Structures
1.
Amino acid sequence: MTKKSLVTAAAAAVVVAALTGGAFALQASALRAPSASSLTALRAATWLRRYRLVDSVFRIDGGRPQHATCVQTWFHEQGRNHVGAVLRLDDGFVLLAVPPHTLASRGGTPAERSSSPLALLELAGCPRVLARSLETAARDRAARQGRTRLRLVVGATRLTLTLEATSGRPVALAVSGPRIRGSSRIRYRQLDPAVLRRLLADLPR
Amino acid sequence: VATVEPATRLAAEPRTAARLPALAWIAGWWLAGRGLVFAAALAVHALGLSGHISRPEHPLGALEAWDGRWYRMVASGGYLLLPGRQSDPAFFPLFPILLRGGHALGLGYYTAGIVIANAAFLAALVCFYVLTRELLDDGLARRATIYLAIFPGGVVFSMVYPESLVLALIALAVLCALRERWLLAAVCAAAAALGRPEAVFVSLPLLALAWQRRRALTPLERGFALGAVLAAPAAIASFMLYLGRVLHDPFAWTVAQGAWGRRFSPYGFVTAFSNLGNDLARNAWVAREVVAVVLYLALIAVAVRTGVKWPWTVGATAIVLLPLFSGAFDSVSRFGLLAPALFWGLAALGRPPAGHRLIVAASTSLLVVATLTLPYMYP
């Protein structure tokens, strides 16, 4: 390589390095970095999106503990497939939610029937519903982080998630809103066809 | 010094005097085009055409709609990648940085966006006119500038979108290179690529110019010229480095684009055509984008016949056709706005006075229609 070529290559390298470094510095100094709580909320949402079936034990308004199962799957409605959720409680309450058109329930106590369906689905740990709330809170910078707690506001409802310290996986949550106050512990399960058939049998419409 | 100074001033005065009418003429067309857009946007508000506008209560809500909301989100809160969902790393950082600057001066984000976009469009028209005059001829430059000022898809030049700014920077980068101010050309090319990824194709005319002039340049200048050629990819690399640092994923911008259905693949081009029937059945507005692709390719062909050099036509073709490799026609009409060769082709068609009148009449009518329909389809 001649001296002239070296000068040309060095000058080009300096220009490229200066532009790359300068542009990086501009972005780093002028744009806000995502907050730790937003990233924690996203990590929790990523955990939730790995599952379609969640078992939970929850209490509403200090009532007796209820065992609940929530499954999220596809429903064929009005010629198209939509992702929806089925929540079943041991006392016979069943809630079917398939946005944007279907919301139906059957059975249960007056407290369950009068609770906000969205808050019930969140309280039961319905994975996609909860993940979406977490992602929205992360995007809107509406999540606040404690040591193993994550607090977020979704509409008029406050959610507090307890996260596993090592993995950041949600293991418990508390919901507080105008039509519901409750807490739950959640457990993730693998979904198999037999369980899915049982959960989708005899749905309210 | 005493003798040189007046001589320089004397030489400069006629040039300035000659430039003034041209500037006034360009400002007139800018004012006319933007006047139509703003009047139509106010009509959208007055008629209550809310559609998908996020702030229908605002008189200029139509100009803040669609991607404007995303740019505002990046400006106010920075980037955040939501896997599997539409999220903001799909939007390049230059415009949000300027929105933050405007906000720091006391303007609202949306107001800052509209002010910056429209002021940058005036600068883009001036730079585009001077560039076209230098590369082609004055008559064609005038017509091309008029058509750019009133181009139907050019409604985005008044919205909270970065296209006007990026177009100004592309034209300025090549103008600087033509004047052998390579470092300034490099800065402009890098800034343009920080605004929109299509700006990477400014490297082609810069490469052609650098190659053409290589023997007249010193080794140091050749290095600066090469730096200018590589400036746009370097800026995109800096964006990826930044995303890698804050989101731990340098490819977050392509991941985020995936949520809009933009997944590039070698078969995407075929898929775009094979899915066209279904896409049209689901959303008739896709027809607008198909027409835009056909029209743009025809204009590029006219530009080639007019003598526009290959770096411009190859860049324009890539801007029009590459998005189809994502499997859809979405927004091609907007992407094409960053290809100057299209307007040069249109200007060649407008050489006969009847053709010129037809283009001006059709463009102004369609510009109004494009603004009135903003609530129903993204540009």
2.
Amino acid sequence: MKKILFLTFIILFCATNANAYTVSHTKDGEMQQLITSIGFKILNANKIPYRTIFTLSDKKAINAVTYLNTREIRIYKGLLPYIEKEDELAAIIAHEIGHAVESYQGIFNGAFSGLKMSLSPKKYEYKADKDGIDYMVKAGYNPVAMIVAGNKIFPQYNGDMLSTHPLSSRRLMTIYEYIYNKYPYFLANNEYINNVYYQNFLLTSNENRQKLKEKIEKKSNKRLRYL
Amino acid sequence: MKKIILSYLILFFITSSAFCLEDELINYIQNAKKPVIKNENIDDFLITQDFKKTNKNKIIHKAHNEVDFLVNCIDTKIEKPNTNLKYNYENNQKYSFKIQAINNISTRNKTLKEGQFVEFKLLEDFNYKNTLIRKDAIIKGKIENISQNGTYGIPYNLTISNFKYNNIALDGTLRIQGANRAIWVYPCAYLTSMFFGMGLLFIPIKGGHAKLSKRTKRTISFFD
């Protein structure tokens, strides 16, 4: 009798655990799978020979981070309500992959990469944006989504003197200029032209785009300082 | 012992059945007919018909879309960029080719810009997928990313990839880094910061330009 009761107890216990797993698997699991599949699609399409993993974090902050010692990219749950299309999520992941790839560069397999990134963080943010655009294009995503996602989530500070990240309007315009120079196809056939967030970017970047227009017309090579 | 296990089991069954009941209730709620809500506009009583007539232009406004005026200025050839989604990395073979820049490449040169092609000379015969590329052949490489120098002596970075010989695309990336002054700037800044914050003086020191001399020989390796 004891044995039967004990066995029933074990079976019931296992069954409840299995149920609990299935329930948790439906929501976060699907999102985790989407993040991982986008991440690995970008890694494979760009032949990136460095190992990186992708995880979904419970944190409510609107952020995504790359852990340089473990090469782990974490997407915070707080970011997800701002994402509408796969392209936008791919933009965030591609930017973080840019940081992860950078973490492998340098001596001792990039052991000091964290230090160099903390010494001049703005430079590496711009670099990760540009690398991210290249990665997106190779993986079949629309790079204009980086502007759309950025316009929704980047806060606009008064200046960037003491900030680790570049001024958002400047950063978005640099992304725009990079797409303009390297992948004009996506601007000439812009599927985001009627998107409300992209329209807002056009509205808020009028002065900056005017500067770029003058630069193009004068065929100048001067580096522009955007507002 | 028997009693404890038995009471645990009974408790377990009671609670699990409670869950079932709850689930049934949820199903019941979900299957129940939802009340139909008519989407009726409620008039703002302050805006009378006369007000609408007199202020017609103020109330009705067209949705206005911004135009991207820069699109008309695109002077480069508009081509859909290639993707790499049909890959199979099962039988990858390693290839290496040795190159030398035809002209000096430097980020100090203001005409250098992203997307531009630069030329290299092949230094040794290179056999790629049964195609022999002879020594001295001209190989073009695309400037992918120019990353500016930063504070604390962080240097410029230049990335060249998408190599091409006629119509043959060659993988591999050439990364060029300028003089890394962070090696001495950071320790100096850290140590002198103890003396009345003197370390702050070192922060604006920037790193060197990324250069590739036409004498430098570089080997590019890739798997394909």
